[in-house]
Amino acid sequence: MLSSIEKMKRIVQLYEGEWITLRRDVHRYPETGWLEMRTSAIIHERLSSLGYTVLTGSRAVAPEARMGVPDEQILAAHALEAARQKGTPLDFLTDEMQHGLTGVIGILDCGPGPVVALRFDIDALPMTERSDPGHRPAREGFASEVSGVMHACGHDAHVAIGLGVARVLSELREYLHGTIRLIFQPAEEGARGARAIAARGHVDNVDYFIGSHVAPSDALDDGDVTAGTWGSLATSKLDVTITGKAAHAGGYPEKGHNALIAAASAVLALHAIPRHSGGQSRVNVGTLHAGGGRNVIPDRAFLQVEVRGENTEINEYMETQARNICHGAAAMQSCACEIVLAGQAEGQHSDQELIERIVEVTRRDLPELKLSSEQNARNWGSEDISVLMNRVQAHGGLATYMRVMTPMADAQHTVSFDIDEKVIGRGVSVFCASVLDLMRGKEK
């Protein structure tokens, strides 16, 4: 009789091709944060067919806790487009999804036992994918069909891995004791979505929490799996609007209040913020839009600003400095300043106890996979999985953020990004073997 691990491996082998096809479908129709309507409908349909209890809309995310939500006009236009796209399961495209309440929670109740939550992010980036034959997705017919949007970070693979995990665990239910909670999180890019999941309480009673990201191999991540990461930078994303007063630049310049000059002063001062002695910090002005003509005093400027810190305290210092600078620069030109917090993540660490357990599971049950030399590697980016991890840890649970390695055609967040799709089966295997270990009952 097959053991649970042997059965798991057979299921992965059976369905791996289907998951690659799914990844390519999601890649063709990418959606940015809070617009993941088609993606959420597909996840909803698949989880329902596998017998999961499915939460969507305001049951999955707290509407008031969302950050950086597009305006209603953008939501409505995208809802129409999502409904027209090939393969959208319209019966599962709910009204709340179409109003920007995207993301899906799938729950599999396997009786008494621990609660294990797994997180998979689902959004894309506002980038235009390469369309020449030198780019494999274009050559093989699955490049983005959505203008100005592409999966350039691997979240399409995360969707496929998450639904692969859902399939495998549903077929291994007899071996599991406890509750599985699969979190398909919207709006990770820009650190906008995790708070809305956390605010619904979905991780407050979680005993074990595992997330992962596809990643390139390097000196530290020199295997197939890195069981934990630490050190994600805390970050705040600020949308800054400076409002002045228009005037004729030649006839009555003294009657105007120049929002462009205020914004320019803010940009220079932001990049001169004194660094914190307690650790790493970052600041960047990513966009600046101002003015409408050379002979008009500009009455409006808009900036997208981000700050980061090695920990939450340093990030708070950077954010306070940034806010003071923007308000001060506006005041110097007699302008008003409005600042909206459009995204935020916290510092992050993985629990060594859970890391060691995943390492042991991989060595014992997945010997075909190579563990990285560094079991707990530094993560220099920012990730709003930190919000979920910290909430789990604050309530007494254990959390880790893994990496699953794959060759990449180019770096993440580039227009040439692509992955080796074998990573999907490896990702499913690591998640499922870990869940079997954490929720294991007696072998049948």
**What's the gyration radius in Å?**
23 Å
CATH class of the largest domain: Alpha Beta
How many helices? The count is: 12
Tally of individual domains: 2
**How far apart, in Å, are the first and last alpha carbons?**
8 Å
Q: What is the number of E strands? A: 13
Please trace the helix and strand order, writing H or E for each element: HHEHHEEHHEHEEEEHEEHEHEHEH
What is the beta-strand fraction? 15-25%
Largest sheet: 7 strands, mixed
Mean pLDDT, nearest integer? 96
User: What is the CATH architecture assignment of the largest domain?
Assistant: 3-Layer(aba) Sandwich
Q: Helicity, in percent?
A: 25-40%
Structural class: alpha/beta
- With strands numbered from the N-terminus, the spatial order across the biggest sheet is 1-2-4-3-5-13-6
Q: For the record, what is the CATH homologous superfamily label of the largest domain? A: Zn peptidases
Unreliable spans: none
**What is the CATH third-level topology name of the largest domain?**
Aminopeptidase
The dominant shape is globular
